[in-house]
Amino acid sequence: MKKRFLLLILLAVGTITVNAQSFTDDFESYNAGSTLGPQSPQWTTWSSADGGTEDVNVVTTDAHGGTKSIYFSSTATTGGPQDVVLPFGGPYTSGIFTFKSWFKVPTGKTAYFNFQAENTAGTTWAMDCYMNANGSLQINNQSKTYITASYPQAAWFELKVVANLSTNTWSVYVDSALVGSFVNGTNKIASIDYYPANANASFWVDDVSYSLTPYTLPALNASLGNIDIQNGLVGAARKPKTSMRNLGVNPITSFDLLLTHKGTSISKSYTGLNIASLAQFNIELTEGIVLPLNNDTITIALSNINGLANDDLPSDDSKTIIVTTINPAPGKIVVAEEGTGTWCQWCPRGAVFMDYMNYNYEGYFAAIAVHNADPMVVTDYDAGIGGLIAGYPSAVVDRNAAIDPSGLENDFIDQIVKLPAAVLKNGATWNPTTRTLKVSVTTKLNTSISGDYKIACVLTQDSVRGTGSGWSQSNAYAGGLNGAMGGYEALPNPVPASRMRYDHVARIITPSFTGHPNAFASATNAGDSVTYTFTYTLPTTWLDRKMNIIGIMFKPDGTIENASLSNITTAVNNGYQIGTELGGNFLGMEKLNGPDAIHLAPNPGTDFSNIVLDLNNDANVTVEIYNTNGQRVAYKNYGSLNGAIHLPINLNEFNSGLYLVKVMVDEYPTTLKLLKK
Fold first, then answer.
1. Contact at 8 Å (CB) between 227 and 255?
2. Furthest-apart CA pair in the chain: how many Å?
């Protein structure tokens, strides 16, 4: 570890200023093209290996002021190896700590930093800041999103954090504009860590500074912390949280609390306490409030502290916040597809944020975990998502730009308020003996549409489990070394298969990742309806009581217009509707000899291809072929067949392009994609 200077006197080195409670650095005094750590007594790296691969170069490629800055980038899925730390001389637990840093993030790129709460990096995270590729900014801690905002891309901007550690009020500013405040579950700060967190990271940093204004304790002062209430959809129930911190010298033994909201009030008295100086008393009200249609205020005030009318500093005895509510568009359901894998050490983050969204926005949020290179992989789905994301974990919301899973809420809010062109509804029949699930997805148009809208159906399952090493979850959060993450910090690395239950697992997408083309050629006006059906035989390892059905309507550009969401029971209660059959799966179907018993070969093909079947029993087989305009271009009834069979397709009769081959084996359909070169 590098030697440190005691920060007890003013030290001036070129354009660096340091004392016990402040620091500024504009990087102008350093040699460009060289690493930062060996040139500075303040800057170091995560492992204190100054000058190595973790260190960052001083550059002249861009700068906010002067000609020099530091530049971070990565080509690794999990980020790094750059990992640069600036200790603050703490840790600090009281006073007002102010941090400023200028950033420039190119359009479509990402940036990231975190605050550490202890002098030893990796002990406890105090805050995470994600600057996402879509221009959104998230402030997180302990797997919770505190602030969502935006930042200017391809331009220098100042990000400022003012942490009143005495009152536990953390405020974030972008170019001097307040974008949000929060109560931090880790109210301590010791250092900042700049880290390019994924393969899409690219950003410059300049003009870094921090300062601490100490706090002097009066004799008696009960200070109310920020009001913590989760924003959400109109009508959602919420239980406010807050805290009272003793910012006086004398112990606090009693106080009263009053919450007011929309003309109603909740009062509580707390007695028999012994809250020491600088200690904090956490408060979670058991009485809930209902989020209003329009944004409204909540006020919480403390009084009667130790039986006195006022304490020595009444100005911090109350707080008022505006509760932000979201009014969802009627019938709108947002789809989130997350790329994940048991091999991926950072993918617990995706699981935590998907669960968070599913819990807070139940019924409006359709979660789909698309697994990669593990026992839960669905090959076609995995390949499709892999083409939309740059690394794992990543997510797409309604098939828009890829984001880190921590940004799901921000993208969800953007989408849930958009009035969809149509509303979808699931119906079903379910035979538990044959395990045959027939699904109908009925789409009713809200408005006239035109173009190549598509339709698909996804089955997902919760509580998926298995045995063997492939089912164990790699876990970078083990031991808390990379911060809290929804309980994964208390689990080992890897998490044994016996302790894992995987939720939202994609089981199948039908008829394809991009959906059935021109699905609404016969229904283009407001009020028109169209129904498509899907038939599945569920393997016995798929728990029907844990299955979800998600119907998806795609826009012509491939993004998602709207979706339907239900479990099997609800879909059955809705009633099955007759419609156009688009296939399903043959897994577990007794007619076929294994999951690979039906496929196309060669595919792609030039002159010919074959439908390859391996039938256990006699079955009637028919084949239909459709072009991408939804027109049937070939049909043949082969009658009763049995055994291993090749059914030839003469491709010389077709133009180059993509075709859908629908094969009916008795009443069981499936649809395959065929590419003619």
1. no
2. 93
Angle at 286 between CA 281 and CA 291, to 5 degrees: 110
CB 574 within 8 A of CB 425: yes
Tell which residue, 168, 6, 201, 184, has the closest CA to residue 96.
Answer: 168
Instruction: Out of 2.40.30.10, 2.60.40.10, 1.10.3720.10, 1.10.10.60, select the CATH number for domain 334-584.
Output: 2.60.40.10
pTM above 0.85, yes or no: no
Where do the structural domains in the chain lie, given as residue ranges? Answer: 11-213, 222-326, 334-584, 598-676
CATH architecture group of domain 11-213: Sandwich (2.60)
Q: Which of 576, 574, 575, 550 is CA-nearest to residue 563?
A: 550
Give yes or no for a contact between 403 and 397, defined as CB atoms under 8 angstroms apart: yes
Q: Which residues of 120-146 are buried (b: 16+ CB within 10 A; e: fewer)?
A: ebeebbbbbbbbbbbbbbbbbbbbbbb
Contact call for residues 393 and 346 (beta carbons, < 8 A):
yes
Q: Does residue 160 contact residue 172 with C-beta atoms inside 8 Å?
A: yes
Computed from CA positions of residues 615, 617, 622, 624, in that sequence, does the dihedral angle turn out positive or negative? negative
79-98: per-residue pLDDT in tens?
999 999 999 998 998 899 99
Q: How far apart are CA 156 and CA 104, in angstroms?
A: 5
φ, ψ for residue 38, nearest 5 deg: -65, -15
Chain segment 510-526, per-residue pLDDT in tens: 999 999 999 998 888 99
Vertex 504: Cα angle to 468 and 584 (nearest 5): 95
| Fold for the domain defined by 598-676 | Immunoglobulin-like (2.60.40)
Tell me whether domains 222-326 and 598-676 share a fold: yes
259: nearest Cα among 210, 180, 309, 323: 323
